[in-house]
Protein: LegC family aminotransferase
Organism: Anaeroselena agilis
Amino acid sequence: MITYARSRNEIISAVKSCLPSQEKSIGLHEPCFAGKEWEYIKDCLDTGWVSSVGKYVDTFEEKLAEYTGVRRAIAVVNGTAALHIALKLVGVEQGDEVLAPAMTFIATTNAITYCGAIPHFVDSEKRTMGIDPYKLADYLSEIAEIRDSCCFNSHTGRRLKAVLPMHTFGHPVDLDPLVDICNRWRLELVEDAAESLGSYYKGRHTGNLGKVAALSFNGNKIVTTGGGGAILTNDEELGRIAKHITTTAKLPHKWAFNHDKVGYNYRLPNINAALGCAQMEQLPAFLANKRALAARYEQAFASVDGIEFFKETEFATSNYWLNAILLNDGFAAERDTILEMLHQNGLLARPAWTLMHKLPMYANNPRADLSTVENLEQRIINLPSSVFL
Ligand SMILES: *Cc1c(COP(=O)(O)O)cnc(C)c1O
């Protein structure tokens, strides 16, 4: 019987050895405003351009497209709204099923529900903590069938419309096999890239392989606009539609207010976009800091028994948005004790999100075998990861 009594204290010292010493607690992920934030926001206030249009919105969209390498980036009010519209753009409709990870932030799952569609949970793989494409392929050969050029779930009779992988803690999922699965089964691929700005899959920025992808600029993300998000796509026409329906579907005119469909007021205010422009200028420095912190954590945990520091796979360059350690199976029962100790030491670590199928509103949703992710959930601890640490 191995005991990890010593490891508990070693975890605390390992984390502390990687972080600056300070009096107050160290948050999980705090924003960093070290650039031109004040200047750009003052400009918004001085000129009166604080609301739903303005030059910072345009510039922010251009910067995002340029940085990620996609054709079009459309700034919106938050990442959840970006996901909602991304799913609508690929044709997710009332009564469809969308395959999605059980381990994710609630936004991924809720966005599917907002379309009137049904989240169908699938398992993750340990090396990426995201959707396991090989397990998904096997599962689809069991449950899916093609009729009239569409994919159906033969158990529920509902159309399977899309796969919505999420790049967990910034680590890209294995996208190539997911693209193959989508082609084979006529499913649309939408990437929840909310956590993965600055992360690359085989040299391409995340968000490029899905037909549409979503980013988030919430206060805890690598780049923040206070609240905000963006829709990414390489399809010009979808990009045009995305801009149109997120800006109330208004037809351009000097004074007339005509709208050609039910659109959404999902516009990102100029004042938030100004923050985003200043933040994007610092992204390369943020990434360098985050990779340096990850390297320190990796080294510090190398000699702690019962712990594995979670590293990027060979096909990925991760932004290490949230650093994670995994407790060995025999150690997992002590997760909450360790979290308690970390908090007592002012280190605001946290576990993974409660799995989606364990939440009351999604408890009866269709799901595949989720044994890997159920095991992972019990073993994950996210460590303080702010860019300035
Ligand atoms: C942050 C996040 C989102 C979007 O969240 P918003 O707060 O709406 O911007 C979506 N999915 C995941 C996985 C996230 O972490």
